[in-house]
């Protein structure tokens, strides 16, 4: 039975794949022909308690050179476009904030938000020169709502930097490793972010296969 897309709300997303070998329970994946997002239906998501338990297993740290090198794929293209002493927000900062530390080391001022580790809704009352969200977009239960909230907090001329792996194509999705994380519930393609860019009148810039930049129009 078709589902309503959790990203663009198109009421006709169709079943793409089922997986009962890589998870504790069966997961279904639905594909939206409108925005090209693939998502797990809401009734098959982990509970907040289960999500938190998974995140507590992460060992990310600002002193880990490999983790910093990983984040540099987002940090470097954003930082290279910033004016000195810019004001930024890192959305989904996680248990060991590191990207924010890298921006602070570069001379910028940072605010943090994470639903589990830095739940400070007041940060959304401010305006920012840049916003980053690294390895967070794939966890969002209401992705369009969250992206809109970030976009509304971004100053005209500001930069939104997203890092999430873009899925290859529908035919190879079933073998794609990125879907095997139980906390990953929504997967995007180039078309998905172009759909979002059309909504915002802002053309996305793709860097590699996991970094997407949006420049907010003046």
Structural write-up:
The protein is of the alpha/beta class and 218 residues long. It has one domain: Rossmann fold (3-Layer(aba) Sandwich), CATH 3.40.50.150. It is 23% helix and 25% strand. The chain is built from five helices and eleven strands; from the N terminus they run ββββααβαββαββαββ. The protein has helices spanning 48-55, 65-79, 99-105, 143-152, 190-200; strands at 3-4, 11-19, 27-31, 38-39, 87-91, 109-113, 128-134, 154-163, 186-187, 205-207, 211-215. The strands form two sheets. A six-stranded mixed beta sheet has the order 6-5-7-8-11-10, sandwiched between helices. The N and C termini lie far apart (43 Å). The mean pLDDT is 94.
Top-tier CATH class:
Alpha Beta
Largest sheet: 6 strands, mixed
CATH architecture classification name: 3-Layer(aba) Sandwich
Low-confidence regions: none
Write the CATH fold name.
Rossmann fold
The number of E-state strands comes to 11
Oligomer: single chain
Q: Please, how many domains?
A: 1
Structural class: alpha/beta
Give the radius of gyration.
17 Å
* Strand order, sheet with most strands: 6-5-7-8-11-10
Overall mean pLDDT stands at: 94
Strand content: 25-35%
Q: Which terms would index this structure?
A:
single chain; 218 residues; alpha/beta; Rossmann fold; 6-stranded mixed sheet; 5-stranded antiparallel sheet; 5 helices; 11 strands; globular
Q: Would you spell out the secondary-structure blueprint of this structure?
A:
Elements: E1 3-4, E2 11-19, E3 27-31, E4 38-39, H1 48-55, H2 65-79, E5 87-91, H3 99-105, E6 109-113, E7 128-134, H4 143-152, E8 154-163, E9 186-187, H5 190-200, E10 205-207, E11 211-215
């Amino acid at each position: 039975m078709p589902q309503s897309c959790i990203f663009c709300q198109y009421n006709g997303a169709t079943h793409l794949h089922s997986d009962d070998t890589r998870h504790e329970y069966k997961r279904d994946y639905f594909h939206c022909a409108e925005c090209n997002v693939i998502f797990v239906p809401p009734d098959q998501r982990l509970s907040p308690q289960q999500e938190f338990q998974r995140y507590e297993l992460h060992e990310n740290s600002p002193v880990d050179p490999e983790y910093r090198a990983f984040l540099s794929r987002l940090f470097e293209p954003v930082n290279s476009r910033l004016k000195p002493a810019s004001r930024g927000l890192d959305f989904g900062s996680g248990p060991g904030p590191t990207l924010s530390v890298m921006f602070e080391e570069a001379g910028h001022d940072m605010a943090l938000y994470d639903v589990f580790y830095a739940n400070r809704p007041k940060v959304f009352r401010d305006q920012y020169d840049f916003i980053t969200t690294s390895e967070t977009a794939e966890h969002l239960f209401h992705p369009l709502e969250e992206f809109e909230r970030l976009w509304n907090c971004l100053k005209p001329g500001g930069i939104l930097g997203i890092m999430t792996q873009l899925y290859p194509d529908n035919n190879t999705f079933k073998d794609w490793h990125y879907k095997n994380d139980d906390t990953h519930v929504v997967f995007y393609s180039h078309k998905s972010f172009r759909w979002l860019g059309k909504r915002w009148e802002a053309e996305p810039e793709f860097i590699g296969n996991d970094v997407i930049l949006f420049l907010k129009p003046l």
